[in-house]
Amino acid sequence: MSAARTALVTGASSGIGAAVARALTARGYRVYGTSRRPGSVTDPVPGVEYLALDLTDPASVRACAAAAGPVDVLVNNAGESQSGPLEELPEEALERLFRLNVLGAVRLTQLVLPGMRARRGGRIVMVGSMLASFPLAYRSSYVASKAALKGFATALRREVAPYGIGVATVEPGAISTGISARRTGYLAEGSPYREEYEAMLAALDANEARGVPAERVAATVLRAVEAARPRPLYAVGSGAPLVFVLRRLLPRATVERMTARRHGLRPVAGPVPATRPGGRAGGPPGRG
Question: What pLDDT, on the 0 to 100 scale, is given for residue 196?
Answer without folding.
Answer: 97
